[in-house]
Amino acid sequence: MALALSLGRRGQGITWPNPAVGCVVVQGGCIVGRGWTAPGGRPHAETQALAQAGEAARGADVYVTLEPCAHHGQTPPCAQALIDAGVGRVVVAVVDSDARVAGRGIEMLRAAGIAVHVGVCEAEARRDHAGFFTRVGQGRPALTLKLAQSFDGRIATASGESQWITGPGARRMVHAMRARHDAVMVGAGTARVDNPSLTVRDLGIARQPARVVVSRRLDIPLTCQLAQTAGEVPVILCHGADAPPALVEAWGGMGATTLTCRSEGRHLDLSDVMAQLGQHGLTRVFSEGGSAMAASLLQADLVDDLVGFTAGLTIGAEGLPGLGALGLGRLAQAPRFDLAQVRAVGPDVMHHWRRAR
């Protein structure tokens, strides 16, 4: 199952709206088939692993990280494919929460006389499929908030200089994190000031994550990198109903997808933004800025994973803080996360925190 999980992770960021599943077929103690969800979500992992195994799949043990699907979509059910292949046993890491499956795949297998074991490496599988489960259960993608800061929590000097607070190792790791998410998201301020491309670079990645910009009035220059490359790498703009129609049309003409979201005063309702992204099919979003956006996401209780990169330099109180105002009066109101990992990355420290249980 550990191998199946590692195979499934190869599809993270490129299979949405489908989950990134891994599958291993074992016959007589030997691996005869391996598969993972293909880019775009099809073929499914089981289909690919069975095709590789061929006749060796008959009577074999199959390890799969998510319950095999039981419904007819664009492809037949994977549970039926396993039955047709004549496998002897199926080991499932975690049950699918999609109402179209939700135990039906397991029932189909058992009804066909196939032994099924559920719950092997379940905690790891739940983490790997967190985006899929969050979209199914809450109607939104799972969200990772990344902050790269000085030791004293600053992301730029008073003059706005920010390149580079962290070293090349940390930046390379951030690019790898982008690649494992369906989309990279920033606010309008970051898009205007930094003019980012938000692409994965120097890792040999062919399929890029979508780029999401949250901007109520779409006040982003049409000459920016995101606009100029919208026809090559997907751009999704979350805007308010009061955005100028001419700008909505102009962005659409450049290849961007525009999503109208609910407003709360002068800002967009980020809960609705995330719901709209979920309806669009996104399962995993990586938010990179800026400080106001980060604070708003935390206030709205939308952050599932918090990843910090801390550099060994100090900027001082006059620098730009990594988080905007949260308006907290008591410590009990502060968002808390559970520590998942700490590691050195060159001269910097990466610390990963997960939503508190």
TrEMBL record:
This is Riboflavin biosynthesis protein RibD. It holds the Pfam family RibD_C. The keyword S-adenosyl-L-methionine does not apply. The keyword Oxidoreductase applies. InterPro entries: APOBEC/CMP_deaminase_Zn-bd, CMP_dCMP_dom, Cytidine_deaminase-like, DHFR-like_dom_sf, Eubact_RibD, RibD_C, RibDG_C, Riboflavin_Biosynth_HTPR. It comes from Sulfitobacter albidus. It comes from the Bacteria. One of its GO terms (molecular function) is diaminohydroxyphosphoribosylaminopyrimidine deaminase activity. The gene is ribD.
